[in-house]
Amino acid sequence: MQVWLYPFLFLLGASALIFLASHWLDARRLPKAPPLLWNLTHFEGGPISDLLRDVSQLVTALLGVAISVVAIIVELAANRYTHKITELFFRSKVNFTVMGFFVIAAIDSIWVSFTFRDDFVPVWGTLVSMALMTLSMLLLLPYFAFVFDFLNPLNIVARIRSETLSVIRSAPAVIGTAQRSAESIQENAADGTEQLSDVVLNAMANHDGAIAIASVTALGDLGQDYLDVKGALPLDWFVITDAVAENPDFVSMSPEVLESVGRERDWFEFKLLRQFQTIYQGGLGGSRELCYVVAIKTRELAESAMDRSEPRVVSLCIKFFNTYLRSTVNGRDVRTAYNVFHQYRLLAEAALQRNQGRFAVEIARYFKYYGQLAFNADLGFILETSAYDLCTLNEIAFNRQSPERQELLHIFLQVDKEGDGGTREASLKGVRKAQVKLATWYLLHHDETSAREVFRDMRYESPARLASIRDEILSVTSPEFWEVTDRGTNFDFIPAARKRQLVEFFAWFGDTIPPPRVGLVPDEDPGERHAPANIPNPSVS
């Protein structure tokens, strides 16, 4: 309302002030001048009739200007972002009201001028026509302000999301009635997700990063809003109708898969995640920040599904995370994989925090799979990234005493074991560093049993390589990476207390490796080695 009301009131006030001031000056100049109200209600027919014809032409011209400007602006916006803009704009009540007011003002002035006769002067008709013309003039600039605000891409994105959610919320009331069918509701809801995706893709083409990110965010928020209302939707909503089956994102599916989607009641989530997949693939290599936001929103959708007891949706999000990683490895985009693994790990952490560790184990297995897939594609850093994230996941599982912690450790120790027997094991030093870091975590918290399991996995490594791993970790003194990264952390850093446990861990290898160089081992702090009071000792239990 502020977009048009304040300009309208300002113009109205300024116009009235100028008119009253000029009339007051004229009245002072002519002491016997009649009052203002008398002047406004007593006039001669001929001149007023001519004036009204001019008024009608003026209002018609205003209508023509408004239509021309609006048509050009709306068409440009629709071509730049999505054709949905045109539909939204012409359905707007404000747009219909203002345009209708211009039409009414023009028609009224024409008919009032037509009623003038020598013996009849339509005083009230003339005053009303003048008032309508004045309001038309005053509305023009505020109306343009409304148009520009309405066509703001961020506002369009918000409207598409809001309308799509409104369509879904209306399903319980209208499905099965004479008003609308389930197929119609499904088609409109699917169209809303496609329009948001179109805005993203067009914004990418036009290098409008902020708009693209806002649209991805709107898609993600729409998914979470949908989960809030999903429980209230009728069964007909979840049936795979022709509107769903013939949609571009479903048309290639086999009947068995479509039947499964309908049975699991998640066709809309699948449709939304398909839009994420399209955006992700379009952003690889060129618009990485969109890939990161897609990963964030996919994680948030999965977390919301966990909170709402929708395990099928969680599994669906995991499938799409795997699809993102496959596309990333195929596109050899190491930086994007680095950030997507981070969001994937946060999802696994969320599963552990919600006591749904089976999802964390499933994700850990995929970390191992896609890490090895990247390694075989000569993208070794991706494997290292997956290893360090698995290290963090194991630490969190230990902290929470998760029942899955032993299985997570087993998966982690298999990350550097390739299917062909590990012929390229010598080049996987980064993975070994991550495993050593986890061993120091276990020792710091008095779980020697788990640390010994890491030791047994490494006992056949060459002494030179073991010494190199130890000394490289000991030499890292800053927790922050020396370049700008989205994570901002240095994978190889461990605090002083864990560095002393690192020396103890490598002492288990005996005299086969030389002692660390002088100055690498921090001084002892007796208070650092104690485990936090809220973490039990699994080796004792």
Structure description:
With 541 residues, the protein is mainly α. The protein has a domain at 2-151. It is 72% helix and 0% strand. The protein has helices at 2-29, 36-41, 45-80, 84-90, 93-114, 123-150, 153-169, 171-174, 182-205, 209-230, 235-238, 242-245, 255-264, 267-283, 288-307, 311-330, 334-353, 357-376, 380-399, 405-413, 429-444, 448-458, 463-474, 496-507. It is elongated. The relative contact order is 0.05. Residues 419-423 and 526-541 have low confidence and may be disordered.
Q: Oligomeric form of this entry? A: single chain
What pattern of helices and strands is seen along the backbone? HHHHHHHHHHHHHHHHHHHHHHHH
* Radius of gyration, in angstroms, nearest whole number: 35 Å
Give the end-to-end Cα distance, rounded to a whole number of Å. 66 Å
Helix content: over 70%
Strand content: under 5%
What is the averaged pLDDT score? Answer: 83
Shape: elongated
Spans of at least 5 consecutive residues whose pLDDT stays below 50 are 419-423, 526-541
The biggest beta sheet, please? none
Structural class: mainly alpha
Number of alpha- plus pi-helical segments? 24
Q: What is the strand tally?
A: 0
